[in-house]
Design brief:
The protein is of the alpha/beta class. The strands form 2 sheets. Strands 3-4-6-5-7-8-9-10 form an 8-stranded mixed β-sheet, with helices on both faces. Helix 7 links the parallel strand 9 and strand 10.
């Protein structure tokens, strides 16, 4: 299988800066625990494809016998939709989910500034095709799907749950999601990330904005660290206000990256939430 081409040097430098930089709050400059972004993790056991493009790939993480009674987890990584941030930083999370008895696939997708439809087209294709690829590879799951997305990936998971729910969707867990594009734009998250993604302001992008889309018909849980300064909890609050059937799980004292860190105190409640979403009739 062809590998993704190497990142240009300036993208690689930006990725390192993203992992290392402090963030400013109204009171002081503080650092987050971002160790998960560079923590070593085992390589994925499976390499999957859902299309012909360089980005149309996914890492497969087959679970043990417990996974046969659970949905497939389709993981959508974050990084503010920017091309320099790929799925590699989710390997510790994916490996931990595999160890907890889940089969997971960590999805790659195009991240081309100003072309959000390339991104959403890839997410649609991945959700349609990857379950079959996972099953063909012999990885166990019960035929259902749970969407799990972090940050910008949380935005894409919420978008997909509302606009393009895959067959067998059992629920969605959005971790620190960019759930309200207009609010994220007003807050100028990551130096104009929303406008860079969309190619302009989000006012006319209601079809891509989870808070303005109809509520998904399957269960939705948003999890947000109370100390998240990259994607403030207000974005999840806005979503649950617009869609009262969604549930908000607050992680006390957690920042942005603790929600994908298996070593954090925020992790055990997320495993419990996944089991709840996987329960029949949830």
């Amino acid at each position: 299988m062809p590998e993704l081409p190497p990142l240009p040097w300036h993208f690689a430098v930006r990725r390192l800066l993203w992992a290392a930089r402090p963030q400013a709050t109204g009171r002081a400059v503080v650092g987050e625990d971002r160790s998960v972004l560079t923590r070593p993790a085992p390589p994925p056991p499976l390499h999957l494809r859902y299309g012909n493009g360089a980005a149309h790939v996914a890492d497969g993480w087959p679970g043990d016998e417990r996974a046969a009674r659970r949905p497939l987890l389709l993981l959508i990584h974050g990084g503010f939709w920017r091309p320099e941030y790929d799925r590699e930083h989710t390997r510790p999370m994916a490996a931990a989910l595999r160890g907890a008895g889940w089969t997971a696939a960590s999805v790659e997708y195009r991240r081309e500034p100003g072309d959000p439809h390339a991104t959403t087209a890839d997410i649609r294709a991945a959700l349609d095709r990857l379950p079959g690829e996972v099953a063909a590879a012999g990885a166990p799951f019960d035929g259902r799907i749970l969407l799990v997305g972090h940050s910008a990936g949380g935005h894409l998971a919420l978008w997909a749950a509302a606009a393009h729910p895959p067959d067998g969707l059992a629920g969605t867990l959005a971790l620190a999601p960019v759930a309200d594009l207009r609010l994220a734009h007003r807050l100028d998250l990551d130096d104009g990330a929303v406008a860079d993604f969309l190619g302009g302001p989000p006012d006319d992008a209601a079809a891509l904005d989870p808070v303005r889309l109809p509520a998904p018909t399957t269960p939705v849980v948003l999890a947000h660290g109370t100390d998240d300064i990259r994607v403030p909890p207000a974005l999840s609050t806005a979503y649950t206000t617009a869609h009262p059937t969604a549930r908000l799980l607050r992680a006390p004292g957690a920042g942005h990256f603790e929600l994908i860190d298996p070593l954090s105190t925020a992790w055990p409640p997320l495993l419990t939430t996944l089991k709840s979403l996987a329960a029949p009739g949830t």
